[in-house]
């Protein structure tokens, strides 16, 4: 294959990986933000402490993914953001509101903390719902009509539920005592909605997109792809089975979080298979949307420097702050 053929594939893989890492890493702290109203004041401090060292850096992966879309696939960038400018704006407002609430909460007097707690919750919910709407519209090829709108609305409800499950499992991993036991309960409450939602999405996606239906249900591809939904179901059931106080209080407290992350990864793999080689399904392939080969070579050099740095400090920060979250101290 020539550079013109394989460089767009490389950048598509890098963009997809960046967005997946963002969804997993920022997904759990969005989930924690949406769980704040269920906790008391001391528990909220611990919940914020569990995501404090990571949440700002987690969003770097979103910047990387969108940046690659802009510079490597400029035609697709214009098409995608042109069709999704309202949910993109809502997501940005939500992320900004979260950032403001997080910083102001640190110095706020006790009487103002409930206001910033509500702002953090609202920003988390806005960002999660907007991301779900964008995902639903993107999977249906940014088409207009009631099918695309209804599908996007369903995803806008279900993705926040998935983030809540992920966030609750993160709290099972990072906290202990009464809050950890409550997190187990929150995760068990969110689990049925996520399980039913994934089943509905799996059934609705082929109906919403003829291309997706043709790729998944053709033989022998259907047999080869069968492990993806089977392992996803097994991971979901495994997560539910391990959401017990006995497991949470043991050294296996990481298992529910890992299994839910696996569900997200398998969903991304299935989505990638459904979409490839399109960057906008049925409308624009990666080769049609890509920048000139000479530009991609220069971009590749920049990514070869920046991506390892981003990955390195992400791994470093999670290693430094591994273990249970400490009580929040504003001193």
Q: Your description of this structure?
A:
The protein is mainly α and 331 residues long. The protein has one domain: Formate dehydrogenase/DMSO reductase fold, CATH 1.20.1630.10. 81% of the residues lie in helices and 2% in strands. The protein contains 16 helices and two strands. A hairpin with a 3-residue loop joins strand 1 and strand 2 (284-285). Helix 4 runs antiparallel to helix 16. It is globular, with a radius of gyration of 20 Å.
Characteristic terms for this protein:
globular, 16 helices, two-stranded antiparallel ribbon, 331 residues
In short:
The protein is an all-alpha fold and 331 residues long.
Q: Overall mean pLDDT score?
A: 87
CATH structural fold name: Formate dehydrogenase/DMSO reductase fold
Distance, first to last CA? 58 Å
Helix percent band: over 70%
| Overall 3D shape | globular
Taken in chain order, the helices and strands follow as: HHHHHHHHHHHHHHEEHH
Layout: helices, strands, pairs:
Blueprint: H1 3-35, H2 41-51, H3 55-58, H4 60-72, H5 74-83, H6 85-107, H7 113-139, H8 146-174, H9 178-208, H10 210-217, H11 221-225, H12 227-242, H13 245-248, H14 255-275, E1 278-280, E2 284-285, H15 286-289, H16 293-320
Antiparallel strand pairs: 1-2
Helix pairs in contact: 1-4, 1-7, 1-8, 1-14, 1-16, 4-5, 4-16, 6-7, 7-8, 8-9, 8-14, 9-10, 12-14
């Amino acid at each position: 294959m020539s550079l013109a053929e394989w460089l767009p594939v490389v950048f598509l893989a890098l963009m997809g990986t960046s967005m997946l890492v963002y969804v997993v890493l920022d997904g759990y702290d969005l989930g924690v933000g949406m769980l704040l109203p269920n906790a008391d004041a001391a528990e909220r401090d611990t919940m914020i402490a569990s995501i404090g060292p990571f949440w700002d850096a987690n969003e770097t992966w979103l910047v990387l993914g969108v940046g690659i879309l802009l510079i490597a696939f400029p035609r697709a960038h214009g098409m995608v953001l042109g069709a999704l400018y309202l949910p993109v704006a809502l997501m940005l407002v939500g992320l900004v509101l979260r950032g403001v609430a997080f910083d102001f909460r640190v110095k706020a007097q006790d009487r103002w903390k409930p206001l910033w707690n509500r702002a953090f919750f609202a920003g988390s919910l806005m960002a999660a719902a907007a991301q779900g709407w964008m995902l639903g519209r993107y999977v249906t090829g940014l088409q207009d009509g009631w099918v695309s709108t209804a599908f996007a609305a369903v995803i806008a409800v279900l993705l926040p539920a998935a983030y809540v499950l992920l966030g609750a499992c993160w709290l099972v991993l990072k906290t202990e005592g009464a809050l950890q036991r409550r997190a187990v309960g929150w995760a068990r409450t969110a689990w049925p909605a996520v399980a039913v939602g994934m089943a509905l999405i799996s059934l609705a996606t082929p109906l919403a997109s003829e291309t997706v239906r043709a790729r998944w249900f053709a033989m022998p591809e259907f047999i080869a792809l069968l492990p993806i939904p089977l392992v996803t179901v097994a991971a979901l059931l495994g997560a539910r089975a391990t959401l017990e106080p006995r497991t949470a209080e043991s050294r296996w407290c990481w298992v529910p979080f890992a299994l839910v992350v696996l569900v997200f990864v398998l969903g991304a793999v299935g989505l990638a298979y459904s979409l490839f080689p399109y960057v906008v399904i049925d409308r624009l392939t990666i080769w049609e949307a890509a920048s000139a080969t000479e530009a991609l070579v220069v971009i590749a050099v920049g990514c070869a420097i920046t991506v390892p740095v981003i990955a390195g400090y992400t791994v470093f920060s999670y290693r430094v702050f591994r273990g249970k979250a400490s009580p929040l101290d504003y001193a």
